[in-house]
Amino acid sequence: MRLSGKHIVLGLTGSIAAYKAAYLLRGLVKEGAEVQVVMTPSAKEFITPVTMSALSGKPVASEFFSANDGSWYSHVDMGQWADLVLIAPATASTIGKMAHGICDNLLLTTYMSAKCPVMVAPAMDLDMFSHPANQANLDILHSYGNLIIEPGDGELASGLHGKGRMQEPEIILEEVVRFFDQKKKLLNKHFLVTAGPTHEKIDPVRFIGNYSSGKMGYAIANELAACGAKVTIVSGPVHIKITNPEITIIPVESASEMYEHCLRIFPETDGAVMCAAVADFTPEKYSATKFKRGKYGLLIQLKPTTDIAAELGQLKSENQIVVGFALETNDELQNAYSKLSKKNLDFIVLNSMNDDGAGFGVNTNKITIIDRDNNPTFFELKSKAEVAKDIVARVVSEIGKKQEKRH
Ligand code: CTP
Prior knowledge:
By secondary structure, this protein is an alpha/beta fold. The chain has helices spanning about 20-30, 50-55, 75-80, 90-100, 105-115, 125-130, 130-145, 170-180, 215-225, 255-265, 310-315, 330-340, 385-405, and strands at about 5-10, 35-40, 85-90, 120, 145-150, 150-155, 160-165, 190-195, 200-205, 205-210, 230-235, 245-250, 270-275, 280-285, 300-305, 320-330, 345-350, 365, 365-370, 375-380, 380-385. It is globular and about 80 Å long.
């Protein structure tokens, strides 16, 4: 029984996939979990509370108050009791409400009160799933640290084919088991992650920056935290909001600020993942007054910044790891490996600007991981959340190797 002692709130919303939640519930209970089912009013149109309460061995919570005796379900208590809130199936409407703090049923108030991680299994038609509004809402949920179980590709209730069908109950069950298992993988570990661009000030209104959105770094931080680690992100200016008690964000602007904070934090950590697109050059002089338009061009003298990854690579102890990134346009494998050795990294994650769907701003990435023996491992194009899983799996194995060496 891989889930014994675990408290799970299973939330159902109004989707045809609600019937699959019965199988999911049976799987969770078989694995030893104690499950409290919460159904939205429209979920009850698709599957009856009787089925769910019989399978869970508990009355289903659905209304704020019981019509019979006026007793009420405390969403706060449920939110605190749960080790995991699992919303499966999650409709586009519920996802939208979760993203925007709308609480018009017991499941949504439970979600907002939850102190534990939340997993969401979307279920909808392909066009609804790919609609920019739904994708933006999923991005918001992801930035809150909620875990999204990617829907499957296949036949939909509408008769159409595409991406949107809720994952099969057995796959969701394995995700839940993995979630609880992986929390042990980096327990009591602390990681530093750098993310986003840096802004190098030219004058009070101008800076030198780059296109980095910070999405990859934040996804890695989320995944490290999901594996039980404490994470400190030293982050350049980004538009990502994140709420995870295990993640601390230190906002910085310039490469030199990022360097100072990294230098201070690194000794307390088990390793660093250097995901930031740090400016390589910064203006030699900052002009306190705005440069005015003139007849002639403007020449700004630049000086190199400190290579933070290389510094940490030199400073690292035997027990620490440093992971770098390389964004390349040509001779990718060769350039990435030479960065790995120059900066004394444990492994390097290569992105090629020549790969469609990889690089700045997009939600997907295609990576190659290169180790210290110059062995490349190639990965498919995936969502940044999935890519983060591959990278963190390698972090876990590198940390494991360090521990083995010590014993
Ligand atoms: N990096 C860093 N500090 C810098 C520059 C880069 O920590 N001042 C880190 C990045 O976060 C990344 C790795 O070094 O993990 C490689 O960054 P990249 O920009 O690809 O390489 P550079 O060393 O800057 O070389 P170049 O830009 O010439 O390719």
